[in-house]
Amino acid sequence: MIRYKKDTDNIVTLTLDMEKRNINIINHKLGKAFAPIVAHLQEEKSKGQLRGIIITSAKRNFLVGGDLEYLHQVDSITESFEFSAGLQQVFRDLERPGVPVVAAINGTALATGFELALACHHRIVINQPSIRLGHPEVTLGLMPGSGGSIRLLWLLGMEKAFTVLTSGKRYRPEEALEVGIIDALAKDKADLMEQARQWLLERQEGRRKWDTSSGQVPGGTAWDKGMARQIQGLAARLLKENFGNYPAPRAILNTLAEGSKVDFDTACRIESRYFTQLVNSKEARNMMKAFWFDFESIKTGERRPKGFGRFRPKKVGIIGAGMMGSGIAVNCLLHGLEVVLKDVSKPIADRGKDFAMAKLKELRQRGMITAADEKKMLSCIHTTELSEDFKSCDLVIEAVFENALVKNKVIKEAELHMDKYAFLASNTVSIPITDLAKDSIRPENFVGLHFFAPVERVPLVEIVKGKQTSEETLARAYDFVKTIRKTPIIVKDTWGFYVSRVQNTFILEGIQMLKEGYSPALIENLSLQSGMPSSALSLADDLSLPMVLKYEQQAAKHYGNKYIQHPAADVLSIMIDKLGRSGKTKLAGFYDYQTDGSKALWTGLSEHFPRNQKAYDQRELIERFLFAQVIEAVWCMQEGIIQSVAEANLGSIYGWGFPDFKGGVLQYVNDYGPAQFIDRCQHYESLHGPRFKVPRLLRKQVEQGLLIG
Fold first, then answer.
1. What share of the chain is helix, strand, coil (3-state, %, to 5)?
2. Tens digits of per-residue pLDDT, 45-72?
């Protein structure tokens, strides 16, 4: 687990190498393994037989973090606190043997892994763009619990430490050096170890500034009036940004503020208390469930059809060089694939290549890729107007205008020239895959791949299975999505698929509130306070009101006489047909848009939808936004549109931004309390109608005493 080696200069190298794992993580076992080694090092020092210590790794990473499975299973506050305090003591003992300690970081070091590096007196990192460093715990609703917050406070000062800890950013080596969380860069492993040795040989003693009488926190402490005002400003900023939905950033700020007033060891105990609160909070439990357990379920291919070897694509054809097609092209290039980008003419296709060039240049300037990477990627994109150029592609993705006739035309042209073993995918957002496949030469090789804009930022892809799509094509599509580092979810081929169908309920609920006489500004503010990234009326404009109405019309067609129209549909018809306000693309929807990009709620809304609701129940309105989505997601589960809890939860978070602190749409029910959720649904159904009716699947699970996932 930890290999010990001592050289003739009395320098000890500790090499992290966890058994039966391809990565190193810190858990209670590794923490215990450190304790006797540290005790032995202290004994060596007392004998004058220890000059310095190098900590490195035998694996490709250094240490990627803590054991989330262990933390998620811990249900004792005492155990959580003792876990934090125990690792703090190990790291504290490591930095106080009286000899200098170097972290020779040969790979990614994150979270608790980076806390170990911070406990070393000097940090050297191999300068590889793929390496990431820092504290992303906040993205899981957590914070460092092994002294990392307090060490960053002493190294960087209050404001910079707060930024590093609350951004959740994973820094590249050059960025980390600039920020000040590492001390030096190395060219390769040999240079790394040589630099570490030289640094140790030049020093006689290792002491941290917080262990000296003259040491001070950079920039001052919370006792200082100026810093106190700064802390108040940061607290106000947090409330404005997340409406108090995320306790972790506030806990980090409190830890830094309170920790700055006391000695280092007392500050670490303060950190442990806040860490313990977070580990046992609903928000952290929900986020760990989504981003660890649900994510691992999808990553390991729980829903991938079994019995088919892994598909390793090399060359991808893309039809359509617009924003979507060009965005997909960039994603493919970044993950080592060749791209053939086609449009109606080569000059138009070349504009797509220009887009890719601009994106890659931006990534190079930000240090995400090297100049050599950029050059190689640009040599792998070929533009054309000829479908014949698809003959050597492993798959072709159609990403043209959302029109069935146009799509069918380009699909037929492409299939004539594709290899019979290649598959073709459509990036349609609303046209059934089964319909598009009717005239296909090989409908079994036809599948939907629904990307979301902007492609470079949205990590989700819906894989849509048509009636004739083969299991092998489904498996190959799954592998392709994972190759380009997106999260795949498999959905049934029906109106709106999964993401658009459920997202539409959020939009419609906001529009219905407008119809009921609530202030548009109130609707927008409360929809954001619910945790959604975009407000309801603004999102309607972004998608276009005709598209929002189209999904409602598709639902009516699908269910026939059984369907009860959403009452908000009337508002959409008035906005589109009577008022000619169809959304952002027309610069007129629920908002007015200026050519400089600014927007404001349309003042005419009050004339056509009078405000007659003077009082309101904030909790009720926020819950209506969330309940509408959750109920629709359960209907999707019941109808087989989405078939796993993990896909439903992550699809909701990644696909349309359902609040991650709730863990996704289905985890929301568990978080709320299944029985209480059903009771509340019945309350809303009595007030607002059948759209809040509890689906049979959920009622049955609750009756059986089961959690929904």
1. 55, 10, 35
2. 888 899 999 999 999 999 987 677 777 7
